[in-house]
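seq as requested:
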Amino acid sequence: MKIVEGTIDNFKQEVLKSDKPVLVDFNAEWCPPCQALHPTLEELSKESDDFKIVTVDIDDQSELAEEYGVSSIPCLVAFKDGKEIDRRVGLQPKKRLLKMMGA
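struct tokens:
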């Protein structure tokens, strides 16, 4: 499943109203750990249709970052049925991301 770019306009539809669990990656282009995480997210997006991945650039979508209390990046937030179920900050291994999503 393709990674979706999250914006203030589509966040409600793509994340909160999703019929699948969603892993949201709050990141920024200038953040080396965020860039290091990207290949892992790409890999997960190709391997599993059990959950969706949404990426949110905190510089472009600062309102979303503020709303969800993102103070350090990368910040990975797992949502299920529109509710936050897990949150991790920093570069995470693939195994931990799968565990966050219940896979």
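The longest helix spans residues 32-47.
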